[in-house]
Amino acid sequence: VEFTIDLVPGTSPISMAPYRMSTSELKELKKQLEDLLEKKFIRPSVSPWGAPMLLVKKKDGSMRLRIDYRQLNKVTIKNKY
Hints:
By secondary structure, this protein is α+β, with helices and mostly antiparallel strands. The protein has one domain (about 1-80): HIV Type 1 Reverse Transcriptase, subunit A, domain 1 (HIV Type 1 Reverse Transcriptase, Chain A, domain 1), CATH 3.10.10. It has helices spanning about 25-40, 70-75, and strands at about 55, 65. The chain has a two-stranded antiparallel ribbon. A hairpin with a 5-residue loop joins strand 1 (about 55) and strand 2 (about 65). The longest helix has 16 residues, at about 25-40. The radius of gyration is 15 Å and the shape is globular.
């Protein structure tokens, strides 16, 4: 699947430092990323763009992977509809 995101003209790539995580969070992150890679939902990237990831605890105690795209959203041209 190919798609593009329209950006404000003159925007340079944004790449933020990762958020700090505990050892147990890093293990869970690695496990979830390996699972997503295995299922081919994600693939390795060499893009200059990057957004930090975090884990949020769900009601059942498991962890949900989230990506913080707020900085990208600030330079995205919004759809009219």
